[in-house]
Amino acid sequence: MNSTDKLADTDVAAGERLYTLGGRTYTAAQYERLARENKAAAGPLLITVGAAVVFAAIVALVFGLSDWRLEGNWLLVAGIVMAIVPAAIWLVAFYTQDRLEPEPKTYVLGVFLLGAVLAVGIGQPLIRNFFSVQNWTGNNLLIDLLAAILIVGFVQEFLKYAAVRYTVFFSNEFDERVDGIIYGAAAGLGYATLLNMQYIVGNNGVDLAVGVMRVVTSALAQASFAGITGYFIGVAKFERKGPFWLPLGVTIAAILNGVVSFLLGQVTRLGGLSFNPWYALVVAAVVAGATFLVLFGIIRRLNAATLAAARA
């Protein structure tokens, strides 16, 4: 029996009312904490979406419209810093707003770093070396879409799922359904940061006006996909959902990962054959913003229903 199948490590007072949610039993205090509205949860992620887009636009305009150019090691260093910025924006926003409803900062940072480690240690080797998708995709749209879902999507989303499910999931600090989204997004941002670092270092630096679009697009997309899996994990922590609930969450995230990534590659060529990363940035921002708004809206409704049941 694990920590999700029993009451927290507290004694139940004689005659204390117990509550049942999704087949699991809680004390009144645990039930109230589970259903409370975490007002600090949505803010940092939504701030990150907007601030990252603004950052990308400023960098693209500065380096795209001016004659200012970096070369050599300076270009590489600038690219690495640029790859870190989306995650840094989120961490600053999270640490600032987290004073309202504190989460263990070491846990959040640990999940972020684990997402990056899994990307470099397992994810990219599987995708690039074992499956070698770069060698047999690019000539057929259907094959490209299937590879994006069945290989890239499932590998990436399972690893982000694993970063949460097999670590903080068992902690007593994971005490709200919304925590799943927070930790999922942290794993996604860690994964994206590693991908962006590899992209920049592998090319010995990139054109900053174009590279910033890819960096921000990747960060927003990876965080939002992992947020979906995080929602399923958060619900499973406190309700019995059966053996197919978590696989369903990973599958939905993987499908969206593959479809959106495939479409992002296509929309960059809208209006002609010329490459235009602005389209991908807009799509990624809309997808990320809409995803987080929907997920937090669902969580808020679940919490309201839980509180109503407790007060009945």
- The global form is globular
Uncertain segments: 1-11
Biggest sheet features: 2 strands, antiparallel
Helix/strand/pairing category? mainly alpha
* Mean pLDDT metric: 84
The value of Rg in angstroms is 21 Å
Characterization of this structure:
- The radius of gyration is 21 Å and the shape is globular.
- The chain is mainly α and 312 residues long.
- Helices cover 72% and strands 3% of the residues.
- The longest helix has 35 residues.
- The two termini are 30 Å apart.
- α6 crosses α8 and α7 packs antiparallel against α8.
- The N terminus is likely disordered.
- The protein contains 10 helices and 2 strands.
Describe the SSE topology.
Layout lengths: L17 E4 L2 E4 H8 L6 H24 L6 H26 L7 H26 L2 H4 L4 H25 L13 H24 L5 H31 L6 H23 L9 H35 L1
Antiparallel strand pairs: 1-2
Helix pairs in contact: 1-10, 2-3, 2-8, 2-10, 3-7, 3-8, 4-6, 4-7, 6-7, 6-8, 6-9, 7-8, 8-9, 8-10, 9-10
For this entry, give a set of tags.
single chain, 312 residues, mainly alpha, two-stranded antiparallel ribbon, 3% strand, disordered N terminus
What's the short version?
With 312 residues, this protein is mainly alpha-helical. 72% of the residues lie in helices and 3% in strands.
